[in-house]
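User: Structure tokens for both sequences below?

Assistant:
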Amino acid sequence: MKIVFLSHASLGMGFVVGSHQLAKALITGGHNVFHISSPVSVLHVFLGKQRRQKFFYALKNRTVKHSVFGFADYIPICLAPMGYAKWLDVMNNWLIDAQIKRHIGQESTDMVLIDQPQLFNALDLFTNATKIYRPTDLYSEMGGRKFASPEVKAIERCQGIVATSSQVFKHIKTITNKPGVIVTNGVDYDLFSEPKEQTRFNKCIYVGAIDFRFDLETALILANKNPEIVFDYYGPVAIELNTEMPENLIFHGSIDYAQIPTLLTQYKYSVIPMNDHKSNDGRSPMKLYEFLAAGIPVLSRKTISINSEVKPGVLLYENKHDVQTKFIELKALSQQYDVDEFKLIASKQSWKEKAQVILDFRQGLRHEF
């Protein structure tokens, strides 16, 4: 089957997200997958180092298959960032559509999964495909009003909804009554459970975005309350870290995705610190199951969505006032936990299983419409 992703995240920016993992699982299952990410504009050349890097990455890598994930990370190029002016968006969409037409035989596409609402216009290219809207976040809480209208237009063009959390699904149901299903983010179980050599040290790890959703205050509390433990944080840093840091709190910056499974074998504990930003209610953190697959118990901030993820090996804290109490429980758990039990939990949340659920849902939509 030929499957196209219209996604928000590019592999070239240091983030691995659910669409990348799902695409890899579908490729492993024998499907022909094309992954298209959020467009980059010529103005990105003048908008700072990171945006400039994305522009030149788009020029060089749009047709090169990634060695780990198996798809070409295709990034369309347009005139200006999407959402700033309607007349610019008309021109942008024309350019994006023209590039997609050259890149993909859209008439032979069987399924389109879209999680970037601003690419809604491209859905009209795929006349024979089953189109599914796959929202991964509460976009209006993350990007503001510029996502509101595109999201509605994307939903109008799709036959069904695959949401990654209960809160996202609840939000979508205020817009449409089209058939939908919740498929949370999963884990590349084979990759994260593969490393066998484990020399675990008295250290705690977090891997992921360190941005407006990250709780720096909680990270400081844990480091100050537990000076005997090293807290290592990996991921692109997009917040100010000008606070004087304890010696045992270290921000390492980005790490190559292929290095993470082996890195995790060094740690006894893991943490997912999220602040009060409303977008966190809709998140479905992949790292939760990646940590479990590596045999590490997890302490995560309790949210509406993650509340349903409580399982052996996962502890939840309410806020900064009880995080240390829960971390003490996590330390006790690390002395008696069953690595095999954690891995078994993670294995049931593999991306292979998630991919099959989506394929089955798509089959049901074809019978319904």
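Moving on to the next sequence.
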Amino acid sequence: MSLVEGAGRKELSRRMPGLDLLRSLAITLVFFWHYRQTGCGKWVDAMGRFGWIGVDLFFVLSGFLIGGQLMQSMVRGQKIDFKSFYLRRFFRIMPAYLFVLVMYFIFPWFAEREGLAPLWRYLTFTQNFGLNYMVHGAFSHAWSLCIEEQFYLLLPLILTVILSVQSRYIGLSVVLVLFVAGLLSRYNCYDHFIAPFVDGPVWHDATPQYFEKVYYPTYNRLDGLLAGVSIAGVYHFKPELWQQISKFGNWLLGAGLALLTAFYFICAPLISFRASVFGFPLVALSFGLIVMAALSQNCVLSRSKVWGARSLATAAYCIYLTHKQLNSLVRELLYFCGFQPDSLVVLICCIMIALLGGSLLHVAIEKPFLRLREKILKR
């Protein structure tokens, strides 16, 4: 989820329809997570309460797909082509992203709420640091793109260093160090910034503080990306081991779903010590197992071809960029026409417009620039 990598490389997507299915699930979860925040029926609220984990599923998919692209050349004994890698990232991310950004700054009515961050924050992908959504709520969902781009700015350099160090366990050591550092960072952030709100003598709403200090910063949200990169490492560098693991696709799926169920009971509510410190790695591990299952030819996910899943997966990045804004516009229009926010008609209209808007952005902006990218790379 990858948020921005389509359903992965085209050839991988054709072999693994399970990845399309998971990507479709991820954007669906994110849609309902954002939809419920502006008023909805009880069943929609219940459905979207844990929708935030959709971004974590995107992170795991992204780590596997993008990390795998880099590792392919390493497996062949070649150096990482930095120019080609960053060029691919630029043409994948920037055209649709810049189009949406221009819409925000030229047409104020396009914003889902007031409070745009300074333009340089969006252009440098640093918006997620110190992000108070009560002040800068417009286009706040770009925080996850910031994390991905910061991560992929450094990942080729890290992999190059790992490749130059003649050690069998250096890659695993780096992942474990970053994983433990994330645990310690979230513990420290929760203890210093959230606990005084939650456990103090006078109750305060810690939600804005929680998202700013714990949820959005990159150093607290690397678990999913690390899980995806780790899977890519086994997939590309340990094919014999992967062949053994992939035989148990349905067991991996069952284990991942079981861990997600455990998370549901152990780490609720979101603004709690257990969810803050242990919830993100637990979700990352759960989705890591499910992604591994989707890659296994023996798993029901890899054999499931759900109608529309591939199309939804292909347009997922553009849907992610625009769904909150379109939801806001549709709900305001329908409210003016007499429909209440918790109406089923409003929900259906928002879903249809989100799909239409994302698909149009994909066809009109994203797809032509991807074709241009391939032409440039061939030269």
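User: Anything stand out in the second?

Assistant: The radius of gyration is 20 Å.
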